[in-house]
Amino acid sequence: MRRFKRSIIDTNEPPPLRLSKFLPYRISVAAESVSRAFAARYEAEFGLSIPEWRVMAVLGEGAPLSTQAVIAATEMDRVKVSRAVIRLADKELVTRAPHPEDQRAQVLRLAPQGEALYRRIVPRAHALQAELAEALTPEEIVLLGGMLERLRRRASRLLGEDGGAG
Amino acid sequence: MRRFKRSIIDTNEPPPLRLSKFLPYRISVAAESVSRAFAARYEAEFGLSIPEWRVMAVLGEGAPLSTQAVIAATEMDRVKVSRAVIRLADKELVTRAPHPEDQRAQVLRLAPQGEALYRRIVPRAHALQAELAEALTPEEIVLLGGMLERLRRRASRLLGEDGGAG
DNA sequence: GACGTATCATCTCATATGAGACGATTCAAG
DNA sequence: CTTGAATCGTCTCATATGAGATGATACGTC
């Protein structure tokens, strides 16, 4: 039997894995807590789900957007966006118009009521974010933003590498 | 009319809100990307969902645990844990025994097949985490862990403050 | 001991999610 | 123009989720 350099690797025991220290777990738990808190506020104060709020947010930035642009800007899939837009249209917060250059597509924009609600939400959203951000220093916030973006890209690459083409 | 230092605040327009810069949004998007990537791997390579993997992970740390201990250790709700345990028991990866001091409760531990699978998963999980962590420096990883924990606590407080008692 | 309340894991049910199907429309190639 | 593949937003359907109900058990008070 060949002899290798003695090391912990030689034993049958795997190196320990503490779930509580595991990065994907920690990100998921933190994100879920934050989403829960914000979802509860948006629902209680404005009657909006998070997907609905995201659509409002990107349309509130000013320019009318195609559904595809909203999908890209909110990082949500087309079904989620479709359903959020349907609900927002039912509430008369968003209008859907035919796209002038493509009859399959739509142009979305905030309806007057939507603009009014948007103006009410924005300061509240800023305040809530500020409350959350009290957990961090301003430098940490900047650093966190960069890290999250890098993690997102790396994770997308990881996903794409294996069974990507289902 | 009193005159304030001229600033954008004086106008009727709310301060702009860019969704893409919004902290809760960025955390959510990053976490979703990471979860998706890891869920795909666990499913493809081991046939486990993330809730199932989490239960395996905490039981694999060694000691048998009550269901309540698993709920606490995995930060999942009791329904999610219950279902994950049922599936793991069906696959004969986990055993359920009556709790010696409380007939309502159970003691969970890895079955022999579960231990074998656990030993296969651990190095893979470490490798996947390492691949993800390549997006960050070692110092950033430590800092990120602390920030996520502080955000989680702050978010829990935010949630508890309003409609907490539903 | 008997009773009422609390907690255990599970079940029920209403909602959320997303992969794939779908009809409508666009575009590329002849 | 005609044809066929691609893309639009929505619908369908199977699965995931979690609040509340449920039956079993435990505990505190009498």
In short:
Two copies of one chain form a homodimer. Chain A is mostly helical. Chain A has six helices and three strands.
Q: What labels describe this entry?
A:
mainly alpha, HTH_MarR-typ (chains A, B), 166 residues, MarR family winged helix-turn-helix transcriptional regulator (chains A, B), MarR/SlyA-like (chains A, B), homodimer, Arc Repressor Mutant, subunit A, 6 helices, three-stranded antiparallel sheet, WH_DNA-bd_sf (chains A, B), DNA-binding
Account of the protein in words:
2 copies of one chain form a homodimer. With 166 residues, chain A is mainly alpha-helical. Chain A has a domain of 93 residues: Arc Repressor Mutant, subunit A. Chain A contains 6 helices and 3 strands; from the N terminus they run H-H-E-H-H-E-E-H-H. Chain A has a 3-stranded antiparallel β-sheet. In chain A, helix 2 packs across helix 4. The radius of gyration of chain A is 22 Å and the shape is globular. The two termini of chain A are 44 Å apart. The relative contact order of chain A is 0.09. The mean pLDDT of chain A is 90. At the A-B interface, helix 1, helix 2, helix 5 and helix 6 of A face helix 1, helix 2, helix 5 and helix 6 of B. Chain A binds a DNA duplex (30 and 30 nucleotides) through helix 4 and strand 3.
